[in-house]
């Protein structure tokens, strides 16, 4: 096990450098004037250009630039935008909202998806099974922005149950409907995964043994069956947390939420290289860390899995 | 799917008949896995429905004039913002365009992006996956890490960065350029999935007796790969490809909605959705009809992929 952890950690290193360098190169090594349109209608004064070139190391080659940037990053300096706003501060303001939204979405998709999956997996073929299968296929097919917009129009503008856009401090109550929109796709996957897994394990020997020795049904399902069936689902939920922490550019845009997705989208539109690279580095780290934890969790949850 | 090669076909029938009642396998002539799958598919209503929808969408994309007498550019400002009527089934948008005509004419671009992105994804993913799986060791580690690098980028975010890097905001790239860029960026961010599927299928197939036998008989690497490995590893990748095609049509719409994907003068469902972005609160029909077409098309491909997967999986019988 320690060997496996070590190997996984070593594998993370090239991926971290590769992904962050890819983004850094895409953002900074683009042909064209980085100062175009930065100073309004007039061309930027030479002093400003000189200052910014020095600040972002624009005269160095892309590799030197990248490692200088990483060096600053490891000392906790996320850099500044062209306007001198600290990127670390921008992220610090936006990230809690995104994390809250992601956690709400995951909670919603896990609760609804798991219950639908367990119900249909136990019942087998029938009306309910077909209904869940059809509705999950439907949910998988709708692009997320359509779900978000339809929810916003129907619940917000037409029925007036929610505010059409989320306020500055984004309370949990306000984030529930965006969370539903964000989690709808994964909810469908979780329901299907649970259903398949339960249906496969329902006739396993250990379930029959548990029934034969007179265990109540609730215990057979809740402890024996669920614990064995839920492992692939937990893996999926784990990776999904990693993905959703990456911000939901579309959902945040529709509901006007001030999260990391909006920050990075504006950063890309305004060519704020420091913001974009900073946020992407953070997201890649979160994603890699979460997928590592999920892999390790797998071994803890299922003792049958051995890594050597 | 016709029987790709005898060795693969026979062994999969053995696998398939091992789990089910034996009498059917004895009484009838053994069928290939592909033949079995086809027989099973024909009985599924969801397969028939999805096949009909896909055929219809493809027909619309090839010959839009059969379905709409008006060209995509037809505009009547007098009727702008009008809802659905007998004259224009899906209503008019804010510029007086006939939403029905545009939806019909938009099918071609959306489908093209989906098809080309799928082909490119599958092609890159399969080649890299089969090389990694076949040679193993250092080659495998190297390609797997490269795949991880691209997989670690969130899809929408990565696509936005790539597309804005090559087209500064406000610039107007040509029609072909932007479509190629959208296709390439979708493929660049999706190929690791196809690669992982292909790699694990190759790892399994490589260990099978007939591959060892072929190598023992002195078959060359290309022969082993094309005659023995590929026919047995291609099924899971094809299933992924079918579902991915649907997903990519949705991705095209998402990118266009964000304003970085395909853009006018091309007419696609994504472009229409993007045009509707600022008006959907007043004119929901501008958004809902193209979005509905996207959803139904994606639905058809997902259903088709599900059906093929179930039919090709011997365990499910």
From TrEMBL, chain B:
What is the membrane topology listed in the Swiss-Prot or TrEMBL record? Multi-pass membrane protein
Q: List where the protein spans the membrane.
A: 47-67, 111-135, 147-168, 174-194, 237-260, 287-308
User: Which CDD domains does this UniProt record tie to the protein?
Assistant: TM_PBP2 (cd06261)
Q: Where is the signal peptide?
A: none
InterPro entries, A to Z: BP-dependent_transpt_permease, MetI-like, MetI-like_sf, OppC_N
PROSITE patterns assigned to the protein according to its UniProt record, in alphabetical order: ABC_TM1 (PS50928)
Q: Which UniProt keywords apply?
A: Cell membrane, Membrane, Transmembrane, Transmembrane helix, Transport
Output the Gene Ontology cellular-component terms.
Answer: plasma membrane
Q: What are the recorded Gene Ontology BP terms?
A: transmembrane transport
Superkingdom of origin organism: Bacteria
**Annotated ABC transmembrane type-1 domain residues:** 107-305
Family statement: Belongs to the binding-protein-dependent transport system permease family.
Q: What is this protein called?
A: Dipeptide transport system permease protein
The organism is: Amycolatopsis japonica
């Amino acid at each position: 096990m320690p060997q496996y952890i070590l190997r996984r950690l070593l594998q993370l290193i090239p991926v971290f450098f590769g992904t962050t360098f890819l983004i850094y190169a895409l953002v900074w090594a683009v042909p064209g004037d980085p100062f175009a349109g930065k100073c309004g209608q007039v061309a930027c004064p030479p002093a400003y250009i000189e200052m910014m070139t020095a600040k972002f190391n624009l005269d160095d080659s892309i590799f030197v630039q990248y490692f200088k940037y990483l060096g600053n990053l490891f000392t906790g300096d996320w850099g500044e935008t062209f306007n001198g706003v600290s990127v670390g501060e921008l992220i610090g303001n936006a990230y809690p909202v995104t994390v809250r939204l992601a956690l709400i979405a995951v909670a919603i998709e896990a609760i609804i998806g798991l219950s639908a999956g367990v119900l249909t997996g136990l019942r087998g073929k029938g009306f309910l099974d077909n209904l869940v299968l059809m509705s999950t296929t439907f949910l998988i097919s709708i692009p997320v922005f359509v779900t978000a917009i339809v929810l916003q129009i129907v619940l917000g503008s037409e029925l007036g149950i929610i505010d059409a856009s989320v306020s500055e401090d984004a309370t949990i109550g306000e984030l529930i409907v965006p969370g539903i929109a964000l989690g709808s796709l994964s909810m469908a996957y979780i329901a299907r995964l649970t259903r398949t897994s339960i249906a496969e394990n329902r006739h396993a020997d250990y379930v029959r043994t548990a029934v034969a020795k007179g265990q109540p049904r609730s215990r057979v399902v809740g402890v024996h069956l669920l614990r064995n069936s839920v492992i692939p689902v937990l893996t999926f939920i784990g990776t999904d947390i990693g993905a959703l922490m990456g911000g939901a550019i579309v959902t945040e845009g529709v509901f006007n939420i001030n999260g990391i997705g909006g920050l990075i989208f504006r950063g890309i539109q305004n060519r704020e290289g420091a913001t974009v690279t900073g946020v992407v580095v953070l997201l890649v780290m979160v994603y890699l860390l979460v997928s590592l934890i999920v892999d390790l969790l797998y071994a803890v949850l299922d003792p049958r899995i051995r890594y050597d | 799917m016709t029987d790709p090669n005898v060795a693969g076909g026979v062994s999969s029938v053995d696998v398939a008949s091992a789990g089910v009642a034996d009498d059917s396998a004895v009484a009838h002539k053994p069928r290939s896995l592909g033949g079995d799958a086809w027989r099973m598919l024909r009985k599924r209503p969801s397969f028939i429905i999805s096949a009909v929808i896909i055929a219809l969408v493809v027909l619309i994309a090839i010959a839009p004039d059969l379905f709409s007498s008006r060209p995509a550019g037809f505009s009547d400002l007098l009727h702008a913002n009008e809802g659905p009527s007998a004259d224009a089934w899906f209503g008019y948008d804010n510029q007086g365009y006939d939403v029905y005509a545009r939806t019909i004419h938009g099918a071609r671009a959306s489908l093209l992006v989906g098809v080309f992105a799928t082909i490119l994804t599958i092609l890159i993913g399969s080649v890299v996956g089969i090389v990694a799986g076949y040679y193993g060791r250092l080659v495998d580690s190297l390609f797997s890490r490269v795949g991880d690098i691209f997989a670690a980028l969130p899809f929408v975010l990565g696509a936005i960065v790539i597309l804005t890097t090559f087209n500064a905001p406000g610039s107007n790239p040509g029609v072909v350029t932007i479509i190629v860029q959208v296709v390439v960026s979708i493929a660049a961010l999706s190929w690791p999935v196809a690669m992982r599927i292909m790699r694990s299928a190759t790892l399994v197939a490589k260990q099978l007796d007939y591959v060892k036998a072929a190598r023992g008989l002195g078959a060359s690497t290309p022969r082993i790969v094309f005659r023995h490995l590929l026919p047995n590893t291609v099924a899971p990748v094809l299933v992924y490809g079918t579902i991915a095609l649907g997903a990519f049509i949705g991705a095209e719409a998402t990118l266009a909605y964000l304003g970085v994907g395909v853009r006018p003068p091309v007419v696609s469902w994504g472009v229409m959705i993007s045009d509707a972005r600022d008006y959907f609160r007043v004119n929901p029909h501008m958004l809902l009809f193209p979005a509905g077409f996207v959803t139904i098309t994606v639905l058809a491909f997902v259903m088709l992929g599900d059906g093929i997967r179930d039919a090709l999986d011997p365990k499910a019988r």
